[in-house]
Amino acid sequence: MDSALIIEKGIFIVVIFAITMLMAMYSTLAERKIAAWLQDRIGPNRAGKGGILQPLADGLKLFAKEEFMPDTPNKFLFILGPAISMTMALLTSAVLPWGDKLEIAGHTVILQATDIDVAMLYVFAVLSVGVYGIMIGGWASNNKYSLMAALRASSQLISYEVAMGLSIVALIMMSGTMSLREIAAQQEGMNWNVFYQPLGFIIFLVCSFAETNRTPFDLAECEAELIGGHHTEYSSMKMGFYLFGEYAAMFISSAILAILYFGAYNYPGMSWVAENWGANMANILGIVVLFIKICFFIFFYMWVRWTIPRFRYDQLMNLGWKMLIPLAIANIVLTGVIIIIADKYL
Amino acid sequence: MSLLTIFYILAAVTLATGFMTVISKNPIHSAIYLVLCFFSIGGHYLLFNAQFLALVHIIVYAGAIMVLILFTIMLMNLNKENEPIKSIASVLAAVVAFALLCFVMLAVFIKAMPQIENYQSSGQDYQSIKVLGKVLLNEYMVPFEFVSILLLVAMIGAVLLSKKQKTVE
Amino acid sequence: MSLDTISLSGRKKEVSNKKMNFWESIYLVAILKGLMITIKHLFKRKVTIKYPEQIREFSPVYRGQHMLKRDEKGRENCTACGMCAVACPAEAITMTAAERKPGEEHLYREEKYASVYEINMLRCIFCGLCEEACPKDAIYLTESKVIVKSASHREDFIYGKDKLVMPLEMAIKNSKSLN
């Protein structure tokens, strides 16, 4: 491996990391602003113009808070919990294609940290490991309420991972690849997967709400009535890591939704732009389009949060196991049948 | 850093976490060491360039099985106080069994050494899931289906066991 | 007309527990409807008043800090009769009467006046009974349009004449507008 490639990838990874952090930071502001707008209020507008510096102020406040450690024999695991949550939220971004490629001074830069053959499995592996952050944190708090909340949260995550995986199987069958880059490339123009897999998309969307612990599936926290779920005992920046990891996860899962179902960086008229304004211009526009799609999904997450009330726990489990999983399996069967028919007769 | 160094580091992590799994008193600590052990084994698979195997290993073992085991351990509330005290006979039996196992393993490794002298390259990229899927569903179709039926039976069995039994009047 | 058909607000709705059909039971339509309602509010006019920059108008009957009035010639109305102190349910008002000296006719309207007039704002409940009790139209809660400010010492809440009597500029303005 030549060192130029390592430097290129290094810079790219740092940029992606910075963008993810920035998006997560401003998601906190966006959440408060959108909540306010949907409730006919104005929202935070004191720090900077229109509250643009609010995330910095929030971060500063979290840093300045007293670091409180419960009397637990597992200090290391107590710290490990939020660290795992945050890391796992950020790790996924390694395989996401943020754009096609750019020609910079005769050198082709692929806008993806790494293009592995089994990217989809990688996403699921990271997701399934993310459960440990909640479980270990809740257990190490040495508090039975934290432990129970951690068990609730992790059983929710495990249940919805199954349905999420099954809904993706149909998409993989259709596109015949697990590489996110190829899936993105296949959706050229308006061939977005959402038109071919509407049921799969809805299942995936519902599951990603559950996976990111967002309303109506925020039983892990239940901000209004539980004390704080698995992070009851956390304070200062450790608590900030849990919350921040959640927003980072929201950004990443919005990106996955956009890439898998909403055509990634593709937009109608991309080839026209490439012909008239050059391939680089088309690809830069593609990145912008991808980020617009991601922002739309982040907005959608928040929009739903301030619209739909929370599920009860038994409703959550019923929906996961008795509705979404059978639907996802039916979707797989349907996709298989349609693929065979299409192969035979078209 | 050469691949060999990475291998040594991974092997050390695997062995250390494996031992810690057995040694540590706290069942939750053992479970977490086991998770780390699974990750390092995933790393070994990656050294073989078996990405699919590595990721599936992490999903299945670290992501599913160990989570469930942690779940049960957390719910069971295993403390030092209610740990059953084992008799000397059972400890002795365990030591003997372990020694025998070590003996067998050593014998296997020593005997197997000369057998793997060179690998034959078939020219096919077996880390690619396309090739893997074709091999699984063509050459190994029957065992593959048997495994799926086995898993299905196990799943149905688990559902049946967890269902409330109707009392017979 | 029976009771259950009457609807005073005109918005009465019968609640029914009918079984949901398939489309209703998957809630997708209901969720979409809800999303449409919330998105409408995104574009509605916001009702917030940004306080330090914008100040909400006082209503005409707003009762704030008391004001001891002066008449059109700038003389204090109060004669220290004590009716307000008697009427006060919170016993917040106290005063000391004094006799007007010759040469002070331009300051006090009548020959008796309050040399000390204090209201304890921590006790005051802003009910306005002092205003109703006053026979000389001397005390008003609606004129000053000032909110009693917070302070960090109890003594600071005892407002004397320096804070309560109508400022001279206001009295001058009043007399000008009358003439």
UniProtKB/TrEMBL annotation, chain A:
MF term (GO), any: oxidoreductase activity
Keyword tags: Cell membrane, Membrane, NAD, Oxidoreductase, Quinone, Translocase, Transmembrane, Transmembrane helix, Ubiquinone
PROSITE patterns reported for this sequence: COMPLEX1_ND1_1, COMPLEX1_ND1_2
Chief place where the protein resides: membrane
EC nos: 7.1.1.-
Stored Pfam families: NADHdh (PF00146)
Membrane topology, as annotated: Multi-pass membrane protein
InterPro entries, per the entry: NADH_UbQ_OxRdtase_su1/FPO (IPR001694), NADH_UbQ_OxRdtase_su1_CS (IPR018086)
This protein's record includes keyword Disulfide bond: no
Subcellular location: Cell membrane; Membrane
Highest taxon listed in the record's lineage: Bacteria
Catalytic reaction equation(s): a quinone + NADH + 5 H(+)(in) = a quinol + NAD(+) + 4 H(+)(out)
Transmembrane segments: 6-26, 76-99, 119-141, 162-180, 192-210, 241-264, 284-304, 324-342
Recorded family membership: Belongs to the complex I subunit 1 family.
HAMAP family: NDH1_NuoH
Assembly mode: NDH-1 is composed of 14 different subunits. Subunits NuoA, H, J, K, L, M, N constitute the membrane sector of the complex.
Functional description taken from the UniProt entry: NDH-1 shuttles electrons from NADH, via FMN and iron-sulfur (Fe-S) centers, to quinones in the respiratory chain. The immediate electron acceptor for the enzyme in this species is believed to be ubiquinone. Couples the redox reaction to proton translocation (for every two electrons transferred, four hydrogen ions are translocated across the cytoplasmic membrane), and thus conserves the redox energy in a proton gradient. This subunit may bind ubiquinone.
Protein name stated in the entry: NADH-quinone oxidoreductase subunit H
Organism: Flavobacterium luminosum
UniProtKB/TrEMBL annotation, chain B:
Membrane-spanning residues: 6-24, 31-48, 54-76, 88-110, 140-161
Its membrane topology: Multi-pass membrane protein
Subcellular location(s) of the protein: Cell membrane
Residues of the signal peptide: none
Reactions accelerated catalytically: a quinone + NADH + 5 H(+)(in) = a quinol + NAD(+) + 4 H(+)(out)
Principal localisation: membrane
Gene3D superfamilies in the record: NADH-ubiquinone/plastoquinone oxidoreductase chain 6, subunit NuoJ
Domain of life: Bacteria
Keywords from the UniProt entry: Cell membrane, Membrane, NAD, Quinone, Transmembrane, Transmembrane helix
InterPro entries assigned to the protein according to its UniProt record, in alphabetical order: NADH_UbQ/plastoQ_OxRdtase_su6, Nuo/plastoQ_OxRdtase_6_NuoJ
Enzyme Commission number: 7.1.1.-
Family: Belongs to the complex I subunit 6 family.
Role this protein plays: NDH-1 shuttles electrons from NADH, via FMN and iron-sulfur (Fe-S) centers, to quinones in the respiratory chain. Couples the redox reaction to proton translocation (for every two electrons transferred, four hydrogen ions are translocated across the cytoplasmic membrane), and thus conserves the redox energy in a proton gradient.
PANTHER family named among the record's database cross-references: NADH-UBIQUINONE OXIDOREDUCTASE CHAIN 6
Protein name, UniProt field: NADH-quinone oxidoreductase subunit J
Native source species: Flavobacterium luminosum
Automatic annotation (TrEMBL), chain C:
Annotated TM spans: 25-43
Recorded superkingdom: Bacteria
Topology within the bilayer: Peripheral membrane protein
Localization (cell): Cell membrane
Cofactor note: Binds 2 [4Fe-4S] clusters per subunit.
SUBUNIT field: NDH-1 is composed of 14 different subunits. Subunits NuoA, H, J, K, L, M, N constitute the membrane sector of the complex.
Family: Belongs to the complex I 23 kDa subunit family.
Protein name: NADH-quinone oxidoreductase subunit I
Lineage: Bacteria, Pseudomonadati, Bacteroidota, Flavobacteriia, Flavobacteriales
